[in-house]
Amino acid sequence: MKNILIVKLSSIGDVIHALPVSYAIKETYPDVHLTWVVEPPAYDIVAMDACVDEIIIFHKKDFRSLGGFLKHIGPFRQKIQERTYDAVLDLQGLFKSAAIAFLAKAPKHMKFGMWNMREGSQFVSQPVRGAHVHGHVIERYLDTARAIGCKVKEVRLPLVVPAREQDLTHRIVAQAGADMRNPYVVLVIGASWPTKCWPDKHFAALGDWLYKQRIIPILVGSGPVESQKAASIAKQMEIPPINLVGSLNFKQLAYLFQQSAAVVGGDTGPTHLAVGLQAPVIMMMGPTFPRRTGPYGQMDKLLVADRSCKECMKRACPLGHDCLDIITPAQVEEKLLPLLPAGSRTPSGQAAKS
Which among 77, 157, 177, 215 would be 20 to 30 A from 141, CA to CA? Predict the structure, then answer.
């Protein structure tokens, strides 16, 4: 094969889960030219992928009106059709991705997608019902790569953080009051669903415990809601944490994860990025399915809310529960303790009571 197109537009977590497909393709077809179509919010993630040769940005907002569609469809079609592709993988499975796959010049029988394609996308690309149809989402994506002959000998996120971004990360952390050469744990404090968020009081208790272990707690996130959460967490702590919410781009965040002792967070994009980078990750889950989006390769570090209504797939709890509140700081501490540098642990070798 000479040219392959991947269409995976959003969200951040889903794009991260799809990245191993690029490695699988280059593992089998090292000389192929791999193009990826993505929306702007996930661009920085794909830009770090060493296996992607070309990125085409799809600006969805440009196509929302008839006038915008008529203005932008010509140049976008021209860009997509600059190459003739040997295969197209629609890993989004929605109308917008199907439209892009339809425009791409490739044999009809070499357009593939996920088994659960929707919104008519199944009429453009063949749904792949592979061996992992009910397994982890990473393996489901990889089944589409297997459909075009990829061996998938190794599951890897081929991400490379530029040296400039590494240096900037050190400077940003230093300006916030910490030195990355000292051991630290990253706390991913937010998520897109309220039901995926661990309570502020628990993050505060964990942060205090980390300081007692001589470990620096670093808060990360983005947006005004998570900025408010960070302020709430800091207010409840004995010593304020290092607050980097809104301070890092994805490249810098990736480097911060790579150098950390561990990462703690819910089922959200940044936490999955840490998992993919093979940082030790404690993930907390409640409303979503661990077998589908749990920490791939690190299921031993997973904590699931012990509720009869878990895996409800609800953004907001109809029963009024704070879903992840039932997961205590002590449970997270117990998972974290073996991951911390030996010199920083409590003398008893046991997690402190919260």
Answer: 77
- The number of domains in the chain is 2
Q: Same domain, yes or no, for 116 and 208?
A: no
pLDDT for res 134: 86
120 and 212 assigned to the same domain: no
3-state DSSP of 267-326: CCHHHHHHHHCCCCEEEEECCCCHHHHCCCCCHHHEEECCCCCCCCCCCCCCCCCCHHHH
What is the pLDDT at residue 346? 56
| SS3 state of residue 37 | strand
Same domain, 184 and 90: no
| Residue (of 147, 149, 150) closest to 90 by Cα position | 147
Residue with the bigger pLDDT between 36 and 154: it is 36
Residues 263 and 299 in one domain: yes
Element at 350 (helix H, strand E): none
For residues 11 and 62, state if they share a domain.
yes
Q: Look at residue 142 in the predicted model and tell me its pLDDT.
A: 96
By three-state DSSP, how is residue 199 classified? Answer: coil
- The Cα 291–Cα 11 span in angstroms is 19
Is residue 155's pLDDT more than 70?
A: yes
Identify the CA nearest to 159 among candidates 259, 277, 257, 256: 277
Residues 269-288 have pLDDT tens digits of 999 999 999 999 999 999 99
* pLDDT on residue 329: 97
Domain boundary among 86, 118, 147: 147
In this prediction the pTM is 0.88
Which are the contacts of 316, defined by CB distance < 8 A and separation ≥ 6? 193, 194, 195
Distance CA 248, CA 256 (A): 9
The distance of Cα 246 from the centroid of its chain, to the nearest Å, equals 17
Task: Say how many residues make up the chain.
Answer: 354
Is 284 domain-assigned? yes
Could you read off the pLDDT of 301-320 as tens digits, one per residue? 999 999 999 999 999 999 98
